[in-house]
Design a protein that fits this description.
Elements: H1 2-12, E1 22-28, E2 36-43, H2 64-82
């Protein structure tokens, strides 16, 4: 929702100047109704620039940035098909 995006951009992003993109998780406060309590920031900028596979964690030639770009393009394609863009 736009209000969440606006709040994240105004309140959280200034604290994370090197964040490129990511997601947030939040709960609504029972005491304050509409107040959101952010508890998890998942920032892609925390992934390494160089992905070496010394411990066999990722597939051969894994590229987290390409994975993100592909996911964004897939969502955009669906939105375009539905006329939501």
């Amino acid at each position: 929702p736009f209000d969440v995006q606006e709040e994240v951009e105004q309140r959280l992003l200034p604290l994370l100047p090197d964040a490129h993109c990511g997601s947030v998780e939040f709960l609504y406060s029972q005491e304050n109704g509409a107040e959101r309590l952010y508890f998890d920031l998942n920032l892609l900028s925390t992934l390494p620039i160089r992905v070496d596979n010394a411990e066999g964690v990722w597939k051969e030639n894994y590229d987290p940035w390409m994975e993100l770009a592909t996911a964004v393009l897939d969502v955009l394609s669906v939105c375009l098909d539905r006329g939501n863009v």
